[in-house]
Amino acid sequence: RSTGLIPEAGRRKYGEMAGQSPEQSDRFLGEFELRLLNMFGLKRRPTPSKLAVIPQYMLDLYHWHAGNADQSLGGNSAAKRSDFAASRANTIRSFHHEESMEVLSSLEGKTTQRFLFNITSIPGEELVTSAELRIFRDGATSDSAAAAANSSAGLHRINIYEIFRPAPSRNEEPMARLLDTRLVREGQSEWESFDVSPALARWTADGGANHGLAVEVEHLGGGAEGEGQGRRHVRVSRSLHGDEDTWPQARPLLVTFGHDGKGHALRRREKR
Amino acid sequence: QARAKPRKKQRANCRRHPLYVDFSDVGWNEWIVAPPGYQAFYCHGECPFPLADHLNSTNHAIVQNLVNSVNTNIPRACCVPTQLSPICLLYLDEYEKVILKNYQDMVVEGCGCR
Asked: Which of A47, A189, A265, B48 has the smallest count of CB within 10 Å of its CB?
């Protein structure tokens, strides 16, 4: 094991063969290690914890672009949608929001959640060409899904805003612009993808302040019961009970598509 | 019957050889999620004089080998990758963010004398 990217055995072998002083060989190996880190765009060797979560979407994208996906994944609309975005990018990054920064309000049949994503790890030379916010709709939590399918009770409108200025007080609205919107019906478990490219472009290339995104879920019809149902259906926050296993894979995900100017874009690899 | 003269051992000409890079061998499997390794290949072999067409050589390599045939102080052309292709890596960076990135020139597609 090594604390760096060069395995300990390799370090030892170089030290024995190079015939240099330990300081000299350390310096040469240090320079080589910098090249390796630079190649991967890293500042130091990653040491992820056992609890690190790999979003299933990123694994699906990997298999899709590596050409390992079977036909069923080949027909996956999410993969197809991302294929266009990825066709101009060579780097796809995923971000979970900072949960401690969440602000939740639930007023007048609307649930609004603010999400802050720390995107400072995107290097300055990387041009973010597009970005999507992915939100999970959990069909399994909807008890009245069948009934909702034939009425307006199971309808929700999801609005995604970029926050320009947070609300100065609890009674005031933040200054925000609408980025994307969609009308959804309860009944099935599905990921919804929203285009948040303008916000990411402002935060990265234009150097604008990142005050986060707001996700507003309007519960159309159904009163207080519909509101509660909708809040569980559109997974914008962690539930209070029994959610530790599912939340890591169901929580909102920000995915950025960028190009660092080196090499070609990600393209689906066809099997020979 | 005269014993067969031991043939001078012929060194293989420049060509591509298999090389599987297992990320666990270099201790990178902790942070590279997928793939677990990949077939990188390597180039090895002789670039003999005169260079054959299939050795994918350049004009410079042909002339260098010609000079080597009359002056051994000048080395022969080298067997190197002439065509490379990218691979996709899914990994965790130092901030535990998951990244999918296309890395250029990771797999040898073809070798030649250069």
From this structure: A47
pLDDT tens per residue across span B53-62: 888 899 999 9
Chain B residues with CB within 8 Å of chain A CB = 25-28, 30-31, 33-35, 86-88, 90-105
> What strand order describes the sheet that includes A110-115?
A103-107, A110-115, A213-220, A155-165, A175-185
- 8 Å CB contact of A263 and B104: yes
Q: Is B59 left (phi over 0), alpha (psi -120 to 50) or beta?
A: alpha
Instruction: Tell me the chain B residues in contact with residue A269 when contact means C-beta distances shorter than 8 Å.
Output: 88
Phi, psi of A5 (to 5 degrees): -90, -15
CA A94, CA A257: separation in Å to the nearest integer?
A: 9
Nearest to A220 by CA among A168, A153, A140, A171: A153
| Complex ipTM value | 0.83
Closest CA to A216 of A133, A110, A78, A134: A110
